[in-house]
Amino acid sequence: MFSADYHIHTGFSIDSDAPMEAMLLSAINKGMNEIAFTDHVDYDSKYYPEPDYDSYMPVFNELKEKYKDDINIVFGVEIGLENKWADKINALTAKYPFDFIIGSSHCVLTKDLYFDQKEYFGGRTKKEAYTTYFDELYKNIQTCHDFCVYGHIDFVSRYGMYEDNSLNYSEYKDITDKCLIALIDKGKGIEINTSGFRYGINGTYPSMDILKRYRELGGEIITAGSDSHRPEDTADHIDYAYDMMRAAGFRYVSVFRNRKPEFIKL
Ligand SMILES: [Zn+2]
Ligand SMILES: [Zn+2]
After folding, report:
1. Least enclosed by CB within 10 Å: which of 33, 66, 198, 203?
2. Ligand 2 centroid vs 227 CA: distance in angstroms?
3. CATH code of the domain containing 78
């Protein structure tokens, strides 16, 4: 059965030291038919500079050719979306021939949710912090045009500093629905990010209720990604994510060519 890990980092991201080939071999060993390398670019974060694509492209092209009988590799990127950087982000996506773009919110109002955790969450109630996150996410959808799926759409709940960080969909229904509808209207998907199994929530980003809601509202574009930064984490819980898709009513998983979704039966 077809299986694809659509969120993998390599040593070209500053937070990974894994050679691209090691990530690739691990994915092949775990039975992946296709993977997307999605190294980071975040303009507001001091921590995720643009990869050196002059060094990146020869390595990527060589590996794509070398392993073409074993796996298909997609040229992707994970861009930290922020509406204040929309022009710069749109210029980046126009410059490189990415096949697949994850747009994620790592920074909100210039604060990195992980590295600047105290600055972002410190002065805000949980309700304020989570609502602001989705307000900004909505603005990002309106201003950053070229992404394919929104990454880990309820990511704010990973780094909250509250007694209970979980994001209960029913409490944030209005703003979450507004974002999901905007994504659907613009032909954008979401991903199931399985890194939550490695970050202590024993689940995915987003949770099942948001996934179901995206489908219920008419959304059809869905990918699954491990968000691995180490070879041992590639393909992690992808089969679980595919089961979630089926349970939420999806009949197809998406792959991307030239930023356009193609649909493969689940
Ligand atoms: Zn991310
Ligand atoms: Zn990532």
Report:
1. 66
2. 5
3. 3.20.20.140
